[in-house]
């Protein structure tokens, strides 16, 4: 065989292989997903690929049930941040959870674990509502998502919807060290006494005194850019 022809065939095969590998990389679910988060205003963690999680119970042509999160390791600790599952319209915009005028608490969380996978501190949006909210449906106790890109792409897996989503989210979360599954005695007693003294009066907020209960809080703010195939309902 002509040596030049052989060389051309080898080169063509190599280029075809590279093209195939590049296509597979582009189609790898979550391969290029990114997220960066700040804690109390200070840049803290960033993650990409498999360390960025996109959870979903499925999507329709108009809405998606979605949860965004990330995992990062730092100095012998594992840090996990999550929005919890929320339902969004497939459209740009700003969304709050729980929605204004509805009951419930934020499902967002920030968890810190040790090398043995034991939870050291579990900050949640719902706990913030109990220990720091200054009124019922306090806006500061809500998860807020600002979606700047919500784009439908051609699916790469049958019976799925491929979505490219970018934006940011923020929430306040609180943590209290429970004693054998219960709030510290002084914390629970103070809340009970305050409730009894306020019978017939407006509810006193926050529901629990954060200083007596030993509560701690954080402000979590994250930016994200994800593309995923989600089950089409």
TrEMBL record:
Keyword vocabulary terms for this entry: Signal
Residues of the signal peptide: 1-25
Origin: domain of life: Bacteria
Name recorded for this polypeptide: Uncharacterized protein
UniProt source species: Massilia antarctica
UniProt lineage: Bacteria, Pseudomonadati, Pseudomonadota, Betaproteobacteria, Burkholderiales
């Amino acid at each position: 065989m002509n040596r030049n022809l052989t060389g051309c065939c080898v080169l063509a095969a190599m280029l075809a292989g590279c093209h195939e590998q590049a296509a597979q990389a582009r189609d790898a679910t979550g391969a290029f997903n990114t997220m960066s988060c700040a804690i109390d205003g200070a840049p803290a963690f960033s993650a990409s690929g498999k360390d960025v999680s996109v959870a979903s119970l499925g999507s329709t042509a108009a809405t998606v049930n979605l949860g965004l999160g990330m995992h990062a390791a730092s100095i012998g600790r594992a840090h996990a941040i999550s929005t919890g599952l929320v339902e969004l319209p497939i459209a740009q915009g700003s969304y709050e959870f729980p929605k204004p005028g509805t009951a419930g608490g934020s499902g967002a969380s920030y968890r810190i674990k040790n090398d043995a996978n034991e939870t050291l501190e579990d900050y949640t949006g719902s706990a913030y509502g109990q220990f720091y909210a200054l009124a019922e449906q306090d806006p500061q106790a809500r998860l807020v998502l600002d979606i700047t890109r919500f784009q439908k792409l051609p699916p790469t897996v049958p019976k799925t919807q491929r979505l490219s989503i970018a934006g940011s989210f923020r929430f306040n979360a609180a943590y209290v060290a429970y004693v054998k599954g219960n709030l510290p005695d002084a914390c629970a007693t103070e809340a009970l006494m305050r409730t009894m003294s306020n019978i017939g009066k407006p509810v006193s907020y926050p529901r629990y005194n954060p200083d007596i209960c030993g509560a701690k809080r954080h402000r979590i703010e994250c930016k994200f850019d994800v593309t995923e195939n989600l089950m089409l309902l």
